[in-house]
Amino acid sequence: MPMIPCHFVQTSECATSASTWVTTFLGLPECRLRRVAQDSSKSLSNEAPYLVVNEASIKILADVVGLTIKETIDRFRPNLVVRGIPPFLEDTAKYMFIDGVRFEVIKKCTRCEMICVNPATGVKEPQLIVALRNFRQRERV
């Protein structure tokens, strides 16, 4: 299996009051906010500050692997989830408009093994990346 380059990013915990506010606002059980050090040359994002997934595309993958749409979305860890467009349209889009805001599509996100890790349990389950690879290989034929 090819190794995926990674890096460590130094962070510090934000004020408890900020974490409490976000936790309450989002209705989460607990949220701990962290901030990247100002002098860091690295960030917590890969190529772009936003990762967008299309709910219609996610539904197809969820059906293949037997997960719910929510479980599958959680595996991809996106910042934004769009709906109302055909499945996999995001693969060829140059721009997306979300609530009137124009987002430039920089590139497809290369999926790593992280989507195999169930964020609720920490258990690695490979079926999602296997299904995604199989789907993409059929697409190239």
What is the makeup of the main sheet?
A: 2 strands, antiparallel
If you compute it from the alpha carbons, what radius of gyration comes out, rounded to the nearest whole angstrom?
A: 17 Å
Q: What's the total number of strands?
A: 6
Tell me the number of helical segments per DSSP (H or I, 4 or more residues long): 4
- Helix/strand/pairing category: alpha+beta
Task: Describe what you observe in this structure.
- The structure is a single chain.
- This protein has four helices and six strands; from the N terminus they run E-H-E-E-H-H-E-E-E-H.
- The chain is an alpha+beta fold.
- The protein has two domains: 8-44, no CATH class; 50-140, no CATH class.
- A two-stranded antiparallel sheet has the order 1-2.
- It is globular, with a radius of gyration of 17 Å.
Brief overview:
This is MOSC domain protein. This protein is an alpha+beta fold and 141 residues long.
Q: In terms of topology, how is this protein built?
A:
Elements (H helix, E strand, L loop, with lengths): L10 E3 L2 H11 L7 E3 L15 E3 H11 L3 H8 L3 E3 L12 E4 L2 E4 L22 H14 L1
Parallel strand pairs: 3-4
Antiparallel strand pairs: 1-2, 5-6
Helix pairs in contact: 2-3, 2-4
